[in-house]
Amino acid sequence: MTDDAPMTLDAWLARLEAAHPVGIDLGLDRVSKVAERMGLLQAPIAERVITVAGTNGKGSTVAMLESLALKHGLSVAAYTSPHLIRYNERLLLDGVEADDELLMAGFAAVEQARLQQEPVSLTYFEVGTLGALWAIAQSRPQLAVLEVGLGGRLDAVNVIDPNVAVVTTVAQDHAAFLGNDIQVIGREKAGIIRSDRPAVLGSQTLPRSVHEHAEHIGALVHALGQDFNHQGKETWAWRGRDASQAQIELVDLPDPHLPRDNAATALQAFILCDIDVQADACRRAFAEVQLAGRMQWHGQWCLDVGHNPHAAEYLARRLGECSGQRGSGRLLALLGMLDDKDAEGVMAALAPVVDAWVTVSLPGERGRSAEDLAQRLGHRGLTVLHCADDPLAGAEWLEAHMEEQDQVLVTGSFLTVGAILQQWQTEAGERPASIEGAR
């Protein structure tokens, strides 16, 4: 950067968005070259690294891994994407968002490295990922948990070799980049797995290609339903194996109010990092874990970023389980989605539990219009109450027209949920204390 004026984080992000001809450009050649120049491949960025890939469940798995580490007194870095409100949410150090200065220092380190010798063009996500890895490496925490952005094998995060690789779920999403063949998608997700290192497979319905790849390269597979499992409803028990393959059982674990398969998967991955696991610390971790935008309740409003059919099916099951809380009230959905998402599949999954819909338009080239969503709902014979220009206008309409016992589901996109969360924070002057978290 040559400008004399000090750069702000917003200015950095705007420049990064405009720097590469396309927003998503899968491949590790460019990223690896810059990572090598930055020294990120010469030494581990943390004492232990867990990489998490999957279609759904990545965010909750990362959050529970982070909580487990913190409750065991470990220093921990967690890198995730996308963010809901602030870019800083993408990098947490010991549970605290990275400040602007650290993030900008990471961007500057990437910029300096990519311009060495022959310049290398990087996407917004690639610069962000390399900058986060640089920031993590500065403190070399006891554990780093890295969420894969898209796919696995060719994602920028995969430039780092993990001690433990996790695949949560595999379903169709990002078809423009990963295609529609579930076996191909599975192989791409499995690309984060390393030979002779633990691979935790966190779903009993993963495509066979995930298992085949893990076995082919000689990974140490720990599969849900075979090598580890969970049982129970309100409180639950977990059974699995530690790094020495000794059997372990933990009982009386509290409900984390996040998908139980992901909780069991996080626990298995954490244990495989050869950590002295304490039952009480695990109980505190699951009791206190929080994750914005996943079954997050604020009074009568439930926020969930689910944006594909698999996520919507889980959401519908959970909402169906608590339908008795509404009494005679309705469940109204405020729906905003991007144009490259399977809107039909999401609508089909949610239709059994939603009584009526308010559709909202999202901005940008990928944004889908409220009218498009409304038309699709209408073709299904579903009730559309209103079309709004944006999520805030939709929420304002609902607040004026919903009844006392009605509940509102805000869903379909990080952009939809983030807009509502940001408005609540603005009205409260800070993060609203009344948000109850997931339940």
Give me the secondary-structure topology.
Layout: H1 9-19, H2 29-38, E1 49-53, H3 58-71, E2 76-79, E3 91-93, E4 96-97, H4 100-114, H5 124-139, E5 143-147, E6 164-167, H6 175-178, H7 182-189, E7 198-201, H8 208-216, E8 220-223, E9 229-231, E10 235-241, E11 247-254, H9 260-271, H10 279-288, E12 296-298, E13 301-303, H11 309-321, E14 331-335, H12 343-350, E15 356-360, H13 370-379, E16 384-388, H14 391-401, E17 407-411, H15 414-428, E18 437-438
Parallel strand pairs: 1-5, 1-6, 2-5, 6-7, 7-8, 13-17, 14-15, 14-17, 15-16
Antiparallel strand pairs: 2-3, 3-4, 9-10, 10-11, 12-13, 12-18
Helix pairs in contact: 2-4, 3-9, 3-10, 4-5, 7-8, 11-12
Q: Please write the CATH class name of the largest domain.
A: Alpha Beta
- Provide the residue-averaged pLDDT: 92
State the helicity in percent bands: 25-40%
Whole-number radius of gyration? 22 Å
CATH-level-2 architecture of the largest domain: 3-Layer(aba) Sandwich
Secondary-structure-based class equals alpha/beta
**Sheet with most strands: strand arrangement:** 4-3-2-5-1-6-7-8
